[in-house]
Design a protein that fits this description.
Layout: H1 11-20, H2 26-37, H3 45-58, E1 62-66, H4 72-79, E2 86-91, H5 94-106, E3 113-117, H6 120-123, E4 131-136, H7 143-150, E5 154-163, H8 170-173, H9 179-196, E6 201-206, E7 212-217
Parallel strand pairs: 1-2, 1-4, 2-3, 4-5
Antiparallel strand pairs: 5-7, 6-7
Helix pairs in contact: 3-4
Length: 219
């Protein structure tokens, strides 16, 4: 959900853009409330909608997600797929996977989401490609390693999306709200530079949600 510290766009712009978002159904609203009440980080609605648009544009058949949480983004992506499509998602928390499975079942999408429990750096090498879309939303300091492991599993023309890469505005501003923010902020600065200059990607950083790294695998 929305970052509580710092803004990457003006408040009036943010409010205006929120008004333009498609209405979410009751299940998604319930998931948003649950995440907010229990302080569980999930994708912002505009990011989840962006992912749905990307899945539809790519006509994606296989998506890799690192960072399931309660499966909010999975609902958007799986709904955008044909029945034979699959979202392959990884999370280290058995509790989160359990909740995500329950939500996927209630959405009628349990056959389109494949769950893997464990550290992503261990799980990704066990997977088989090709993937049309890779979505990263887990430990910020590990984004570069996730990318290095996932790129060989992607088809040429596939898309990588990485969430929270502006980290509440701190990546650009350099103003840190505490020592605990320093490590992810510095890691994301390094990752963003690595990402946009990666020789296999045509990539850019977009001011969507808390910042999205968006890249197409060109070779």
């Amino acid at each position: 959900m929305k970052a509580q510290v710092g803004l990457i766009i003006h408040q009036e712009q943010e409010a205006y853009l929120e008004q333009l978002l498609p209405e979410r159904d009751l299940l998604l609203r319930e998931m948003e409330r649950f995440a907010d009440e229990h302080h569980i980080p999930i994708a912002d609605p505009e990011v989840a909608t962006f992912l749905e648009i990307t899945v539809r544009a790519l006509q994606a058949q296989r998506v890799l997600e690192v960072g399931t949480a309660i499966g909010y983004a999975d609902i958007f992506m799986a709904r955008a797929m044909a029945p034979q499509g699959r979202v392959v998602t990884i999370d280290i928390s058995a509790e989160m996977i359990g909740r995500a499975k329950a939500y996927a079942k209630r959405a009628g999408l349990e056959d389109r989401v494949e769950f893997h429990e464990g550290p992503a750096l261990t799980v990704i090498p066990t997977l088989e490609g090709p993937f049309d879309l890779v979505y990263l939303d887990a430990v910020k300091g590990e984004y570069r390693d996730y990318l290095d492991l996932a790129l060989p599993l992607m088809r040429t023309g596939g898309v990588v999306v990485c969430d929270n890469v502006l980290w509440r505005g701190q990546v650009a501003s350099g103003r840190l709200s505490g020592e605990q923010c320093r490590q992810p902020t510095e890691a994301l600065r390094g990752f963003n530079d690595y990402f946009v200059h990666h020789p296999q990607l045509l990539a850019q950083i977009l001011p969507v949600g808390d910042g999205l790294a968006y890249g197409v695998k060109v070779k």
